Amino acid sequence: MASIASALPIYDIVHWAHAVGAKVLVDACQSVPHMAVDVQRLDADFLVASSHKLFFLLHFRWGEMISDVFLDHSTFAEPPSRFEAGTPAIGEAIGLGAAIDYLSAIGMQKIHDYEVDLANYLYESLRSVPGVHVYGPAPSQTVFRAALCSFNVENIHPTDIATFLDQQHGVAIRSGHHCAQPLHRHLGVSASARASLHFYNTKEDVDAFIHALVDTINFFSSFK
After folding, report:
1. Which domain holds residue 202?
2. How high is the pLDDT of residue 170?
3. Which of 32, 56, 153, 183 could, after both became Cys, cross-link 51 (CB 3.0–4.6 A)?
4. Which of 106, 126, 154 is the last residue of a domain?
5. Taking 90 as the threshold, does the pLDDT of residue 34 lie above it?
């Protein structure tokens, strides 16, 4: 699942890669909290996910280990930061198990089905706002969007959008490259804003976000 809400055909990708003898590492950080992932059926060689998207604690260190990410290489921080991934988190591992049990008790398919409807509502609501460009595919019978929207507003920096929403409306979104620098280079932008949802959100939350976003756009547009 990508930061532009598109779901990749990962089962096919793994099959195609194995057909030519390649190993596959699947980054499932965006997927595991939102849908059931059958690792046996997927048959990937490696699969990674993160507890911070599973309603649990942030890890001790993250982006400080690496500087820039490209499709064919990465540049790392100077020592000692590049070698310090953090202290083994025994308590956090136990807590992660509890978070997984919590989601499993609700039901991952139930969460996924609810979020598909909510994601479509967010997408259509954002597209109705003048000057907003939403990245990623449109939802359809064969294409579902994840419960997030990465977007930009014409002539307004995404960090300004996120900061104003937070300070003036109490609405928390993310701005930046979302740990996806190659994707943003492909899109031709340095950053984007991203609104993310989960099963605890409602359409009323989306409406409140859109109302706050329109007010934010009007505020910055008044300076032109």
Report:
1. 108-221
2. 97
3. 56
4. 106
5. no
